[in-house]
Amino acid sequence: MEESESASDKPRPWQSYHTVYTNAKAGMDGVDKEQVQRVVYEMSKGSKYFENEERKEAFIRQKIEHMRARAAKLSAADLSHYQKVADKRILELESTRDLSRIWLHVDMDAFYAAVETLSNPSLKGKPMAVGSMSMISTANYEARKFGVRAAMPGFIARKLCPDLIFVPTDFKKYTYYSDLTRKVFWDYDPNFMAASLDEAYLDISKVCEERSITGAEIAEELRSRVHEETGLTCSAGVAPNRLLAKVCSDINKPNGQFVLPNDRMAVMTFISSLPFRKIGGIGKVTENILKGVFGISTCEEMLQKGSFLCALFSHSSADFFLSVGLGLGGTDTPEARFRKSISSERTFSATEDAALLYQKLADIAEMLSADMQKEGLSGRTLTLKLKTASFEVRTRAVTLQKYISSSDDILKHASNLLKAELPISLRLIGLRVSHFNEDKRGVPGDPTQKTLTTFLISGDPSRRTGDDQRSLGSDLSDLHFISEKETAMSLDNNETCHHEFRDPFERKHLSDIDDKNCISSINAFEMEKIDELSSNKTAAMVNTADVKERTTRSPKRDLSRVSEDDSSIQREPEDSNPDRLNKEPITSGNEEFFSLNQMEMLFWVDDYKCSLCGAELPSSFVEERQEHSDFHLAERLQKEESGTGSSSLIPRLRIVPKDYSGSQNRRKKHKSSLKQGMHLPIDSFFTKKSSWQL
DNA sequence: CGTTACTCT
DNA sequence: TTAAAGAGTAACG
């Protein structure tokens, strides 16, 4: 499966460029992986995207180095302690094992491509991809033979397969067929969990019992019924939990199935040799880290390294890893889930023309607002997402006191956020609204569906169990299609609701852990808790006043009217004596900051502890103290300001240098590099939080 | 609360 | 020429 590097002395630069496409998937059997790698590398080399990938990879390498160092520093006593912690957790997790349910994961085969072929049979047998020259959503099996894969840009795919046919995406079509499949699913489990347009989880325990037939038989029947109804093939996995079922559905894809019996030995055998990369929730980065730090790659090895995992990772991450090692995950009954955010983003050719950027922003605001209206949503938190010309991603958010949904409101606040970033060269702008009004959150639009919808959703008693994780991505956004759909048959109403259920496995928290277990284990971890500030504080945020004056006034004044006046507001004074805040609470010769006067005194008790929150930060940590003060400051401002509606001050407080277009190196990434360079005596012993997942 | 990173389709 | 869009969670400041 894995690309095996044959030892040789010839330089092979392409082998070091690891893309996601190296992840061996179904239909990639006869592919010359090295050839594909080489082409991808050649096409990528030198691009902005590529450079960004390299930066990210370098960053991960550092993270790995850091963790290895910490692992090496663990004393024998530490290890024996963490071994106990791990053993205990393993026992606790094991006690939650539930083999009483039978879960089925259905996964449509090359869904988008298959649908497109249905509507245009002339595509049959030819290599085809759904997507564009920029990005491919999915490819049919003919195309996969050439190494063409989902998430691969089209121009690279065309290089791999010159005859590749491109078909644009058409979500309405996919939603229609998705609905057909879901009708079938409904017959087997009216509470099925849709994970996306083309995937779902069904608890078939009941059907199996009622009809006294096996999971395998149900799977066969369901698959053949799906085929009858849609003309599409799918694959299925049957297992005692969702995590395993998902893995199983991939085994005999396409048009196949795999059953893992509800037997502990069977599960352990299955899991033991399984590469953990196959597990949902473990992606490229986690794989690299676990491989790089511990040299492991199978689920079984996770258990063997239990002590290290507990020592180096957060409680919830360690728990997840251990449960993967045990083959646990996702046996609970689905609950109603609500959408938590809604967003819209667009990529365009990079520009630094502020007027153009504001125009794009207005377009996005418009689209987002429209989507929100369709679902009757309104929210209090607005997040602006930016991708610079060099592919660096940033987000900027405000939380307001009012719920907003109109494009005017969205645009007004979004403009303020954007303004603070100018000048900047961008290739993507996105907006997201979250923090919904509880009353009208989530329930999909159509009032005629309301009775059924509310009925089903109200079955959301057990809100506990933070058992989720998996995104379900694309399909929620398509809910409105369903309700709008002319054809919408009555049954669909039910299904519409189910689309709200989600989330395949429980990753970070095992929902079925009972409280006692949780508590005891938490205690085990809590003991190690130490001052995280000192271990995690990052160094050196340059306090350069970003001098980029907005010489570039937006022509679209009206968009930014609210903050118009604050062009007079000064930013952090250039001098910025780092200790300024330590001496006295921000006097600032700046009236605009009047609110700061209301901030309680921040000083360092015994020159060590923060008077506001008790964080311990030795006086030598100058930069960290500055940052810490700014943290309280921002917190303060934010509180006072979220009421006024004008939030333009906050972004202005950032001390980090912004970067623009090309030079995005500095900040973020360096944060951690710096951190790793820092001398942190205690943390190597006690830290439970690692630099992991920075 | 705000920001970033990771993951999935 | 050309590397998406939408969503969720964890972790940290």
From TrEMBL:
UniProt KW keywords: DNA damage, DNA repair, DNA replication, DNA-binding, DNA-directed DNA polymerase, Magnesium, Metal-binding, Mutator protein, Nucleotidyltransferase, Nucleus, Transferase, Zinc, Zinc-finger
Protein name, per record: DNA polymerase kappa
Pfam family, one: IMS
Localisation: Nucleus
Leader sequence residues: none
Gene Ontology BP, a term: DNA replication
Region (Disordered): 544-587
Family: Belongs to the DNA polymerase type-Y family.
Membrane-spanning intervals of the chain: none
